């Protein structure tokens, strides 16, 4: 029996389509972050990018996101290893560290809903940045994202 690509390829070896399929669409990387200017510490808020669809937790402007939101990062294997604010449950991070994907990952369970059904997404837990006064973002800092 042939092994799935994520068990036989490194992150660097994946095709663009394979790379994109590793994303579990949890939406946690789209949560707004605040950086302490003095310490460099990152705080994560429950405020999600204006382009995040609240039901699917996917970007509604994915193809144009770097134009619409210049600070939006395109994840790469190097960034997966370096970014300290990626959640512990990020599928890229988990795959890099363990060589496995979670049982709820769409490629494993066969459903895009697994990530939401198991509570690993921001579905129902986030607020669009369109609805929040930027001066009050500190009031929305969370601790449920496991870094």
Structure description:
The protein is 25% helix and 10% strand. With 147 residues, the chain is of the alpha+beta class. It has one domain. A three-stranded mixed sheet has the order 1-2-3, with no helix packed on it. It starts with a helix and ends in a 19-residue tail after the last strand.
- DSSP E strands, number: 3
Q: Helical proportion?
A: 25-40%
Mean pLDDT: 94
Number of helices: 7
Q: Biggest sheet, strands in spatial order? A: 1-2-3
Low-confidence stretches: none
Major sheet size, sense and barrel closure: 3 strands, mixed
Q: Determine Rg (CA atoms, Å).
A: 16 Å
Distance between the termini: 35 Å
Tally of domains: 1
**String of helices and strands:** HHEEHHHHHE
What proportion strand? Answer: 5-15%
Q: Structural class, please?
A: alpha+beta
Q: What is the 3D shape? A: globular
Distinctive features:
alpha+beta, 7 helices, 3 strands, single chain, 147 residues
Write the layout of secondary structure elements.
Blueprint: H1 5-8, H2 16-22, E1 31-35, E2 42-48, H3 65-68, H4 77-82, H5 91-98, H6 106-109, H7 114-117, E3 127-128
Parallel strand pairs: 2-3
Antiparallel strand pairs: 1-2
In short:
The chain has 147 residues and is α+β, with helices and mostly antiparallel strands.
């Amino acid at each position: 029996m042939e092994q799935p690509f994520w068990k036989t390829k490194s992150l660097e070896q994946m095709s663009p389509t394979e790379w994109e399929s590793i994303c579990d669409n949890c939406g946690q990387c789209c949560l707004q972050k605040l950086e302490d200017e003095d310490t460099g510490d990152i705080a994560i808020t429950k405020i999600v990018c204006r382009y995040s669809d609240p039901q699917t937790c996917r970007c509604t402007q994915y193809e144009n996101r770097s134009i619409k939101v210049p600070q939006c990062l395109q994840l790469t294997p190097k960034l997966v290893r370096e970014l300290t604010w990626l959640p512990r449950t990020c599928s890229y991070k988990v795959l890099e560290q363990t060589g496995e994907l979670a049982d709820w990952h769409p490629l494993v369970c066969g459903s895009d809903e697994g990530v939401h059904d198991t509570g690993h997404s921001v579905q129902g837990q986030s607020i669009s940045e369109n609805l929040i006064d930027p001066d009050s973002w500190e009031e929305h800092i969370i601790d449920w994202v496991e870094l």
